[in-house]
Design goal:
Elements lengths: L1 E2 L3 H12 L4 E7 L9 E6 L3 H10 L15 E4 L1 H10 L3 H6 L3
């Protein structure tokens, strides 16, 4: 369940993903499997080859891409989340979610 983002932000992310762009969406999140973590960044792209290449360039295993209908994405959590967001210069998301 996503918290802390607006419908417009979600729609903008979906639009970029559908166009085949690499798109980032960070939100507050709760998952009992990861009780110490409270945010996740979804890195989406409908062009699966492009998303796989992006994962590999960032040292991430593409086998963990979530193949969800029109919005395939890779979930960044923990130490990888901040490291990748910094590398991708996603400063607004780092500041907003206190990463």
């Amino acid at each position: 369940m996503a918290f802390g983002i607006s419908r417009a932000e979600m729609q903008a992310w979906k639009h970029k993903v559908a166009k085949g762009e690499i798109a980032f969406l960070t939100h507050f999140w709760y998952d009992a499997r990861f009780p110490a973590l409270n945010t996740v960044t979804k890195v989406g792209c409908s062009d699966l080859n492009r998303l796989r290449e992006w994962c590999e360039r960032n040292g991430l295993d593409p086998q963990y891409i979530h193949l969800r209908a029109d919005f395939p994405h890779f979930d960044l959590i923990g130490k990888w989340q901040k490291e990748v967001l910094q590398r991708e210069q996603q400063w607004e998301q780092i500041v907003r979610f206190r990463l």
